[in-house]
Design goal:
Blueprint lengths: L7 H17 L1 H5 L10 E8 L2 E12 L2 E5 H7 L4 E4 L4 E5 L6 E5 L4 E4 L2 E4 L5 E4 L2 E5 H8 L2 E5 L4 E5 L5 H15 L21 E16 L4 E15 L2 E9 L5 E11 L13 E9 L9 E9 L11 E7 L5 E6 L2 E6 L6 E7 L3 E10 L5 E10 L9 E10 L4 E2 L14 E11 L2 E12 L2 E14 L2 E10 L3 E12 L2 E12 L10 E13 L6 E12 L4 E13 L2 E13 L7 E12 L2 E10 L6 E12 L4 E10 L4 E11 L4 E9 L4 E13 L6 E4 L7 E9 L19 E3 L13 E7 L5 E5 L9 E3 L4 E3 L6 E19 L10 E6 L4 E6 L5 E8 L1 E7 L1 H7 L4 E8 L5 E8 L17
Parallel strand pairs: 1-12, 45-51, 51-57
Antiparallel strand pairs: 1-2, 2-3, 3-10, 4-5, 5-6, 6-7, 7-8, 9-10, 11-12, 13-14, 13-43, 14-15, 15-16, 16-17, 16-26, 17-18, 18-25, 19-22, 20-21, 20-23, 23-24, 25-27, 27-28, 28-29, 29-30, 30-31, 31-32, 32-33, 33-34, 34-35, 35-36, 36-37, 37-38, 38-39, 39-40, 40-41, 41-42, 42-43, 43-44, 45-47, ...
């Protein structure tokens, strides 16, 4: 194979000689007599557009040009042509089935479709590898242009038509961006973008406005609502603000929050806080004591940002803009649905499984927007490292916005007092955690004070938590929780015992004891995988009544279908309850016939007030561009009204608009108009920009891409921007290509979740350009843009010959090229004669190292050479012979950059 190395300098000289022969007229006379030899062998890399194909093509520099191996080209371009050397024929079709192809060496003819001609001398040469076809002739047969470049050992393909193998590459490239690898890389190994908090950083602003007109015969009504959400930085802290109006367009409530978040726990010195919040905050509870909620107050903690609120359960709470809906998924299973709420929040309480819990809240906007908020929670032993202390403390006035312009929010009358709470837990060992918390709150028309103790212990595949709480002067409660996994079945159990008149936001004042057991499992199937769960619960009440509950849930987990059905049964013994009976329900999100449909329905089969509790359905149809049709149906049992809404959504680059008409079963008709846009500051240009995406609630990255001609990683005044380069951002996907200034902005980043920002190499204008490194890690913050520069450099080569300790060529040894940061940037394996080559090496300084696995096998020193440099002045660094030395010989030393 060494005959086909990229012999650039020698090839250039021979190419020049061939040109002289051609100009003198001697080439034509010698064409038929040319015999390929090893000195003329060249190994080509196929290049089409910005792509470099993986398979290499063998070829020769002939006296009349360049020929390439026909079998290699057929394989590389995936051409359905069968080459039979015994019959000396090649038959099939080229790119399309009507473009038939027949090559017959015995009759010396070639036929493409209905055009048949004889082969000319010099078109095909017999070589040890097979049939070597002149690039000009082969390009004519295939309907493309093949241009060999002997200096770069590349073979360029050009065509005016769409080529099937190019379309396949582009599909794979798009799929790789849309469906990134599920494996989560270690982002700590990549460079981290630093962005200190600022005294003032211009906020991003999201605006949602709606106007609704309805006419019910003798009565007409006009409602106008808006929400303004802003997020930025002031006084070295993040802040966000939500201003909401009432139905008359008058300001109704104002929420403000100032906060700092640090996933690495680097805030407030010895406190090592991960979060500090003031204004509109969330409060967590104990397992028995207190209650969770949101309101005005303050909160501080060093807990992980993705940690559960209490054992076996977490609460997902966030902003739900006006007119938006939310769906909850756990490990891909659709669990719950929530319509737009008056308080502008979504809230889901989720039971956790043993192991990994990937929680996703998918938000759907009225103009077809889709936003995903993700959280991963691990449940199991070693959840709190040994010797680690976690704490939290805060105070809030539940269900109160910071400022209310009108009447108090619903339910706030019962939450007039302030709630104070604090808690801590400590990891005794990998399997044992102890904790305590205390609460004082105004609940059910009186002040209540609590103290709670917790003990968590892992036993094999099961995790137990024992809690005991005292309501001072009232009573006590005890609870044992169990989460585990036995085989393929996840199980969760609870037992609660109340002594005295204990009550809290987590314990119903009517309950004396309760016991429950739940299971969850996955039934794998290639055609229809199903997640199946169920549970039973028994509750004994203080009035001697007994409540028995059972439920079964099944979910289909398919690429285009998320479907969950459930059956729930409830029966009260010794008393009657309007909620008793059997309910069936359905949650769905699916695509069919070009339509997207989602909705929920709940139907009471038996008991009091049978019939639909609630049913909603949304169907969307994309019109093939920036427009879509939307149809909504909503029925509620409380009002007995079914409403139909049909609208048109139009997405502009800077704004999204929806206009619709409504009619209901009372005979009312109406019209609706909704507007959605965001304003954000571009830190690269200093100008404001407008977008239909949510900028204030998500993170952004402002990226500048430039050509680093000297390879130092820093932008010099004379280094030019790169235009049309795509940028990838983890699971978010890709951005628009860079503009004429080399700028682009990635939007929709999950706040405080690290993401790797890198170059889409397939969009680079030259295959011999590469970014310096795989990318830069950004920790996004809401409403502000993280500014990063990405250097793209020309590349060169590093080559040499590897000899063993006995000074003979060594084959099959794995070699690593290490940059100045200690990162492995390239790897290769020495060939049978010891030759090794690193191609497409970014300009910079490196050292050569034997890979660890090869070092263990060979028992030699790992470091082989230092002082390696690829630069504009030295695009190829030839190391010569690099000899391995046994560890016992290292002490002797030797001069030269290649370590002996």
């Amino acid at each position: 194979m060494s005959a086909f190395r990229p012999l650039r300098l020698r090839a250039v000289a021979k190419f020049a000689a061939a040109c002289l022969l051609f100009s003198s007229g001697a080439a034509q006379a010698q064409a038929s007599d040319y015999a390929p030899n090893e000195e003329d062998a060249v190994l080509f890399q196929l290049q089409v557009k910005q792509y470099r194909l993986m398979n290499e093509v063998r070829g020769y520099q002939t006296s009349d040009g360049v020929c390439v191996d026909l079998a290699d080209v057929i394989q590389s371009l995936n051409i359905p042509v069968r080459l039979d050397k015994k019959s000396r024929r090649a038959t099939g079709w080229i790119f399309t089935e009507d473009q038939t192809f027949i090559l017959d060496r015995d009759s010396s003819t070639v036929q493409t479709m209905n055009i048949k001609r004889g082969l000319q001398p010099g078109e095909i040469h017999d070589t040890p590898e097979g049939w070597c076809v002149d690039t000009r002739s082969l390009g004519g047969w295939l309907g493309i242009t093949l241009t060999p470049n002997l200096r770069n050992s590349s073979l360029s393909i050009e065509s005016d038509k769409r080529l099937p193998f190019v379309e396949a590459i582009e599909r794979q490239s798009r799929a790789a961006r849309l469906h990134p690898e599920r494996e989560r890389p270690d982002l700590s190994a990549y460079p981290q973008a630093q962005q200190p908090y600022a005294m003032w950083r211009m906020p991003s602003v999201d605006v949602v406005a709606q106007a609704n007109y309805s006419n019910g015969g003798s009565r007409s009504q006009l409602n106008t609502r808006y929400e303004i959400f802003a997020s930025g930085e002031v006084a070295r802290a993040s802040f966000d603000m939500r201003l909401a109006s009432d139905s008359d367009g008058v300001p109704d409530s104002l929420r403000l929050r100032a906060y700092r978040m640090d996933p690495d726990g680097g805030m407030l010195g010895p406190l090592k806080a991960t979060q500090a919040v003031a204004g509109d905050v969330d409060m967590i509870s104990g397992n028995l004591a207190g209650t969770s909620g949101a309101g005005r107050g303050a909160f501080i903690s060093n807990r992980g940002l993705d940690q559960s609120d209490r054992f076996g359960t977490t609460i997902l709470r966030g902003t739900l803009p006006l007119g938006w809906d939310a769906e909850l998924y756990r490990n891909g299973q659709l669990l719950a649905f929530q319509n737009n709420m008056p308080d502008g929040r979504y809230e889901f309480e989720v039971n956790l499984l043993f192991g990994n819990n990937d929680l996703d809240v998918v938000l759907y906007g009225p103009q077809g927007q889709i936003r995903r908020e993700s959280k991963a929670i691990q449940v199991g032993y070693d959840s709190l490292p040994t010797g680690t202390l976690e704490y939290w403390a805060g105070f809030i006035q539940r269900n109160h916005d910071l400022i209310s312009f009108g009447r108090p929010p619903p339910g706030s009358r019962l939450d007039e007092g302030w709630q104070y709470a604090a808690g801590a837990q400590f990891g005794l060992d990998r399997r044992t955690v102890v904790g305590a918390n205390a609460h004082s709150l105004y609940y059910r028309l009186r002040r209540r004070d609590y103290v709670e103790l917790n003990l968590q212990r892992a036993l094999g595949p099961l995790l137990f938590n024992l809690s005991g709480a005292q309501e001072l002067g009232r009573g006590r409660a005890y609870k044992i929780d169990m989460i585990g996994k036995i085989g393929a079945i996840n199980i969760q159990g609870q037992s609660l015992l109340v002594d005295g008149s204990f009550t809290s936001g987590l314990v119903d004042p009517r309950d004396k004891s309760s016991h429950s057991l739940n299971f969850d499992t996955f039934l794998p199937s290639e055609r229809m995988p199903i997640s199946l769960s169920g549970g039973i619960k028994r509750t004994d009440r203080r009035d001697r009544s007994e409540v028995n509950e059972a439920a079964v849930r099944a979910s289909l987990l398919m690429p285009r279908v998320s479907l969950t059905g459930y059956v729930a049964y409830r029966d009260t013994v010794g008393n009657s309850d309007w909620d008793d009976g059997t309910r069936i329900g359905l949650l769905a999100n699916t695509r069919f016939l070009g339509l997207t449909a989602r909705g929920e329905a709940s139907y009471k089969v038996s008991g009091e007030q049978t019939g639909f509790d609630k049913a909603t359905l949304t169907i969307e149809k994309n019109l093939g561009g920036l427009s879509e049709l939307r149809f909504d149906i909503e029925h509620t049992r409380r009002t007995g009204i079914t409403e139909f809404d049909f609208g048109l959504v139009r997405h502009f680059r800077k704004v999204a608009v929806m206009a619709s008409g409504t009619v209901d079963t009372r005979g009312s008709v109406g019209a609706n108009l909704a507007l959605n846009f965001s304003l954000g500051h571009d830190p690269l240009t200093g100008r404001w920009r407008m977008s239909s995406e949510k900028l204030a609630q998500r993170g952004q990255a402002a990226i500048s891409v430039f050509l680093d001609e000297n390879g130092d990683g820093l932008r010099s005044a004379d280094e030019e921007p790169l235009t049309g380069v795509g940028v990838n951002a983890g699971a978010v996907g890709s951005s628009d290509p860079t503009d004429e200034l080399g700028h682009t902005i990635v939007e929709g980043l999950q706040p405080y979740q690290k993401v790797l920002i890198g170059i889409d190499e397939s969009t680079l204008p030259d295959p011999f350009l590469l970014p310096q490194g795989k990318g830069i890690v950004v920790t996004p913050r809401p409403g502000v843009s993280s500014m990063i520069e990405i250097a793209v450099s020309p590349t060169g080569e590093v080559e040499g010959t590897l000899n063993g300790p006995e000074n003979v060529p060594l084959a099959g040894a794995k070699l690593d090229l290490i940059d100045r940061n200690g990162t492995v940037v390239a790897s290769t394996v020495s060939e049978y004669d010891g030759f090794f080559l690193f191609d497409r090496v970014v300009y910079g300084k490196y050292r050569l190292r034997l890979a660890p696995d090869s070092q263990v096998v060979l028992g030699v020193e790992a470091n082989l050479a230092d002082g390696i440099e690829v630069s504009p002045q030295q695009t190829i660094d030839r190391l010569g012979t690099v000899r391995l030395r046994l560890a016992s010989q290292i002490a002797q030393g030797s001069a030269g950059r290649a370590l002996p």
